[in-house]
Fold:
Amino acid sequence: MSETSGAGRLRGEPSGGPGAVLIATSEFDVTTSTVVVGAGGGCLLIDPGVTVPELAGLAAELAGRGLRPRVAWSTHPHWDHVLWHRELGDVPRYAAPAAVAIADRDREAILGEARRSAPGHEAALIGRLAALDAGAIPWDGPAAQLIIHDGHAPGHGAVFLPGSGTLIAGDMCSDIEIPLLDTLGADPVGDYRLALTRLSALREVRRVIPGHGHAGDAAEFRRRLAADGAYLDALERGKPFSDPRITKDWLRAAHERQLRLARAGG
Structure:
Protein backbone atom coordinates (compact mmCIF):
# COMPACT_ATOMS: atom_id res chain seq x y z
CA MET A 1 0.00 0.00 0.00
CA SER A 2 1.30 3.42 -0.86
CA GLU A 3 0.05 6.95 -0.82
CA THR A 4 0.72 10.16 -2.66
CA SER A 5 0.40 13.87 -2.13
CA GLY A 6 -2.93 15.44 -3.01
CA ALA A 7 -6.18 14.08 -1.62
CA GLY A 8 -7.66 13.78 -5.11
CA ARG A 9 -5.16 11.03 -5.98
CA LEU A 10 -5.61 7.55 -4.53
CA ARG A 11 -3.07 4.79 -4.18
CA GLY A 12 -3.47 1.26 -2.89
CA GLU A 13 -3.64 -2.37 -3.91
CA PRO A 14 -3.21 -2.74 -7.68
CA SER A 15 -6.42 -4.76 -8.07
CA GLY A 16 -8.58 -2.09 -6.44
CA GLY A 17 -11.28 -4.74 -6.00
CA PRO A 18 -13.50 -5.47 -2.99
CA GLY A 19 -11.50 -5.33 0.22
CA ALA A 20 -8.85 -3.04 -1.26
CA VAL A 21 -7.74 -0.09 0.87
CA LEU A 22 -6.88 3.13 -0.94
CA ILE A 23 -5.15 6.13 0.61
CA ALA A 24 -4.88 9.74 -0.46
CA THR A 25 -2.64 12.19 1.35
CA SER A 26 -3.34 15.90 1.56
CA GLU A 27 -0.65 18.54 1.39
CA PHE A 28 -2.25 19.94 4.54
CA ASP A 29 -0.44 18.38 7.53
CA VAL A 30 0.06 15.10 5.63
CA THR A 31 -3.59 14.27 6.35
CA THR A 32 -4.84 10.93 5.07
CA SER A 33 -8.20 10.04 3.53
CA THR A 34 -8.92 6.31 3.46
CA VAL A 35 -11.24 4.42 1.11
CA VAL A 36 -12.29 0.82 1.73
CA VAL A 37 -13.66 -0.77 -1.43
CA GLY A 38 -16.82 -2.84 -1.11
CA ALA A 39 -18.80 -4.88 -3.60
CA GLY A 40 -20.84 -3.43 -6.43
CA GLY A 41 -19.01 -0.12 -6.58
CA GLY A 42 -19.69 0.95 -3.01
CA CYS A 43 -17.03 2.16 -0.59
CA LEU A 44 -16.46 3.24 2.98
CA LEU A 45 -14.85 6.67 3.25
CA ILE A 46 -12.90 7.55 6.40
CA ASP A 47 -11.85 11.11 7.31
CA PRO A 48 -12.00 12.70 3.84
CA GLY A 49 -10.02 15.92 3.57
CA VAL A 50 -8.77 18.49 3.49
CA THR A 51 -9.09 21.40 1.07
CA VAL A 52 -12.10 21.97 -1.18
CA PRO A 53 -10.14 21.19 -4.38
CA GLU A 54 -8.75 18.02 -2.80
CA LEU A 55 -12.21 16.80 -1.78
CA ALA A 56 -13.61 17.62 -5.22
CA GLY A 57 -10.70 15.73 -6.76
CA LEU A 58 -11.30 12.78 -4.45
CA ALA A 59 -14.97 12.65 -5.47
CA ALA A 60 -14.01 12.80 -9.13
CA GLU A 61 -11.42 10.04 -8.83
CA LEU A 62 -13.82 7.78 -6.97
CA ALA A 63 -16.37 8.31 -9.72
CA GLY A 64 -13.72 7.61 -12.33
CA ARG A 65 -12.98 4.29 -10.63
CA GLY A 66 -16.65 3.41 -10.57
CA LEU A 67 -16.85 3.89 -6.81
CA ARG A 68 -19.45 5.72 -4.77
CA PRO A 69 -19.40 6.26 -0.99
CA ARG A 70 -22.08 4.22 0.77
CA VAL A 71 -21.10 5.23 4.29
CA ALA A 72 -18.52 7.46 5.97
CA TRP A 73 -16.76 7.49 9.32
CA SER A 74 -15.12 10.36 11.19
CA THR A 75 -12.51 9.11 13.62
CA HIS A 76 -12.86 12.12 15.90
CA PRO A 77 -14.48 15.57 16.12
CA HIS A 78 -11.62 17.84 15.08
CA TRP A 79 -12.36 20.13 12.14
CA ASP A 80 -10.09 18.39 9.62
CA HIS A 81 -11.81 15.03 10.22
CA VAL A 82 -15.44 16.09 9.85
CA LEU A 83 -15.34 17.57 6.34
CA TRP A 84 -17.44 16.65 3.32
CA HIS A 85 -18.15 17.64 -0.27
CA ARG A 86 -21.51 17.56 -2.01
CA GLU A 87 -20.07 15.50 -4.87
CA LEU A 88 -19.37 12.67 -2.41
CA GLY A 89 -23.11 12.15 -2.10
CA ASP A 90 -25.70 12.11 0.65
CA VAL A 91 -24.71 9.09 2.74
CA PRO A 92 -24.68 8.23 6.46
CA ARG A 93 -21.69 9.91 8.10
CA TYR A 94 -21.07 8.19 11.40
CA ALA A 95 -18.92 8.87 14.45
CA ALA A 96 -18.92 7.64 18.04
CA PRO A 97 -21.61 9.23 20.25
CA ALA A 98 -19.09 11.21 22.33
CA ALA A 99 -17.49 12.55 19.16
CA VAL A 100 -20.86 13.63 17.76
CA ALA A 101 -21.68 15.40 21.02
CA ILE A 102 -18.42 17.38 20.81
CA ALA A 103 -18.95 18.18 17.12
CA ASP A 104 -22.41 19.55 17.93
CA ARG A 105 -21.29 21.46 21.01
CA ASP A 106 -18.24 23.01 19.36
CA ARG A 107 -19.77 23.57 15.95
CA GLU A 108 -18.96 27.28 15.71
CA ALA A 109 -15.34 26.70 16.70
CA ILE A 110 -15.05 23.88 14.14
CA LEU A 111 -16.47 26.10 11.40
CA GLY A 112 -14.06 28.86 12.37
CA GLU A 113 -11.05 26.54 12.15
CA ALA A 114 -12.19 25.27 8.75
CA ARG A 115 -12.63 28.81 7.43
CA ARG A 116 -9.15 29.81 8.60
CA SER A 117 -7.27 26.71 7.53
CA ALA A 118 -9.15 25.44 4.48
CA PRO A 119 -11.57 28.13 3.30
CA GLY A 120 -14.43 27.56 0.90
CA HIS A 121 -16.12 24.53 2.43
CA GLU A 122 -19.90 24.43 2.50
CA ALA A 123 -20.63 25.09 6.17
CA ALA A 124 -23.84 23.09 6.17
CA LEU A 125 -21.86 19.91 5.39
CA ILE A 126 -19.16 20.30 8.04
CA GLY A 127 -19.55 18.16 11.14
CA ARG A 128 -22.97 16.77 10.25
CA LEU A 129 -22.48 13.38 11.87
CA ALA A 130 -24.80 10.65 13.13
CA ALA A 131 -24.00 8.89 16.39
CA LEU A 132 -23.15 5.20 16.01
CA ASP A 133 -23.01 3.20 19.23
CA ALA A 134 -21.81 -0.12 17.85
CA GLY A 135 -18.79 -2.37 17.58
CA ALA A 136 -18.60 -2.14 13.80
CA ILE A 137 -19.65 0.13 10.94
CA PRO A 138 -22.90 -1.10 9.37
CA TRP A 139 -22.42 -1.57 5.66
CA ASP A 140 -22.29 -4.31 3.02
CA GLY A 141 -18.52 -4.22 2.55
CA PRO A 142 -15.60 -5.79 4.45
CA ALA A 143 -15.99 -5.99 8.22
CA ALA A 144 -14.94 -2.69 9.81
CA GLN A 145 -14.51 -3.03 13.57
CA LEU A 146 -14.43 0.04 15.81
CA ILE A 147 -11.98 0.68 18.65
CA ILE A 148 -13.40 3.59 20.65
CA HIS A 149 -11.39 5.50 23.25
CA ASP A 150 -10.73 9.03 24.50
CA GLY A 151 -6.99 9.12 23.89
CA HIS A 152 -6.75 12.04 21.49
CA ALA A 153 -10.32 13.34 21.67
CA PRO A 154 -13.59 12.18 23.19
CA GLY A 155 -15.07 9.31 21.23
CA HIS A 156 -12.00 8.74 19.09
CA GLY A 157 -12.80 5.76 16.89
CA ALA A 158 -10.12 3.79 15.08
CA VAL A 159 -11.25 1.32 12.41
CA PHE A 160 -9.78 -2.18 12.08
CA LEU A 161 -10.33 -4.25 8.95
CA PRO A 162 -9.66 -7.86 10.00
CA GLY A 163 -9.83 -9.12 6.43
CA SER A 164 -6.73 -7.19 5.40
CA GLY A 165 -5.23 -6.53 8.83
CA THR A 166 -5.47 -2.78 8.24
CA LEU A 167 -5.81 -0.33 11.13
CA ILE A 168 -7.02 3.17 10.29
CA ALA A 169 -5.81 4.74 13.52
CA GLY A 170 -7.13 8.29 13.35
CA ASP A 171 -4.81 10.79 15.01
CA MET A 172 -2.62 8.18 16.67
CA CYS A 173 0.26 5.90 15.65
CA SER A 174 1.87 8.67 13.61
CA ASP A 175 5.43 8.72 12.37
CA ILE A 176 5.43 12.54 12.20
CA GLU A 177 3.47 13.60 15.29
CA ILE A 178 3.94 13.06 18.99
CA PRO A 179 0.99 11.84 21.06
CA LEU A 180 -1.39 14.78 21.22
CA LEU A 181 -3.44 14.48 24.37
CA ASP A 182 -6.95 15.67 25.06
CA THR A 183 -5.73 18.21 27.60
CA LEU A 184 -9.30 19.09 28.60
CA GLY A 185 -9.95 15.56 29.84
CA ALA A 186 -9.83 14.53 33.49
CA ASP A 187 -6.87 12.18 32.91
CA PRO A 188 -5.19 13.00 29.58
CA VAL A 189 -2.21 10.66 29.99
CA GLY A 190 -4.33 7.85 31.41
CA ASP A 191 -6.81 8.14 28.55
CA TYR A 192 -4.02 7.99 26.01
CA ARG A 193 -2.43 4.98 27.70
CA LEU A 194 -5.76 3.16 27.62
CA ALA A 195 -6.06 3.96 23.92
CA LEU A 196 -2.60 2.53 23.24
CA THR A 197 -3.51 -0.58 25.22
CA ARG A 198 -6.64 -1.13 23.14
CA LEU A 199 -4.76 -0.68 19.89
CA SER A 200 -1.88 -2.91 20.98
CA ALA A 201 -4.39 -5.68 21.75
CA LEU A 202 -5.01 -5.98 18.00
CA ARG A 203 -2.62 -8.83 17.24
CA GLU A 204 -3.37 -9.15 13.52
CA VAL A 205 -2.43 -5.63 12.39
CA ARG A 206 -0.45 -5.88 9.18
CA ARG A 207 -0.62 -2.20 8.22
CA VAL A 208 -1.38 1.00 10.04
CA ILE A 209 -2.70 4.23 8.52
CA PRO A 210 -2.42 7.30 10.78
CA GLY A 211 -4.59 10.37 10.38
CA HIS A 212 -1.44 12.39 9.72
CA GLY A 213 1.67 10.71 8.38
CA HIS A 214 2.56 7.63 6.41
CA ALA A 215 1.29 4.07 6.35
CA GLY A 216 3.47 1.44 7.99
CA ASP A 217 3.71 -2.33 8.23
CA ALA A 218 3.25 -4.54 11.30
CA ALA A 219 6.75 -3.89 12.64
CA GLU A 220 6.31 -0.15 12.18
CA PHE A 221 2.96 -0.28 14.01
CA ARG A 222 4.64 -1.90 17.01
CA ARG A 223 7.53 0.57 16.83
CA ARG A 224 5.11 3.51 16.89
CA LEU A 225 3.20 2.07 19.86
CA ALA A 226 6.50 1.73 21.74
CA ALA A 227 7.57 5.26 20.80
CA ASP A 228 4.27 6.70 21.98
CA GLY A 229 4.45 4.78 25.24
CA ALA A 230 8.00 6.05 25.80
CA TYR A 231 6.82 9.61 25.13
CA LEU A 232 4.13 9.29 27.82
CA ASP A 233 6.68 7.85 30.26
CA ALA A 234 8.98 10.80 29.72
CA LEU A 235 6.09 13.22 29.95
CA GLU A 236 5.08 11.90 33.34
CA ARG A 237 8.61 12.34 34.66
CA GLY A 238 8.07 16.06 34.11
CA LYS A 239 11.61 16.86 32.98
CA PRO A 240 12.47 18.50 29.64
CA PHE A 241 13.00 15.99 26.83
CA SER A 242 12.85 15.87 23.06
CA ASP A 243 11.29 13.58 20.49
CA PRO A 244 12.45 13.28 16.86
CA ARG A 245 8.88 13.89 15.70
CA ILE A 246 8.88 17.43 17.11
CA THR A 247 9.84 19.18 13.88
CA LYS A 248 7.36 22.06 13.66
CA ASP A 249 6.60 25.06 15.83
CA TRP A 250 3.03 23.95 16.55
CA LEU A 251 4.23 20.52 17.66
CA ARG A 252 6.84 22.15 19.86
CA ALA A 253 4.15 24.33 21.43
CA ALA A 254 1.87 21.33 21.99
CA HIS A 255 4.72 19.40 23.57
CA GLU A 256 5.56 22.24 25.96
CA ARG A 257 1.88 22.59 26.89
CA GLN A 258 1.64 18.88 27.66
CA LEU A 259 4.83 18.99 29.68
CA ARG A 260 3.52 21.87 31.77
CA LEU A 261 0.29 19.95 32.35
CA ALA A 262 2.21 16.87 33.46
CA ARG A 263 4.32 18.91 35.86
CA ALA A 264 1.17 20.41 37.34
CA GLY A 265 -0.21 16.93 37.91
CA GLY A 266 -3.04 17.39 35.38
Summary: The chain has one domain: 11-263. DSSP finds six helices and twelve strands in the chain.
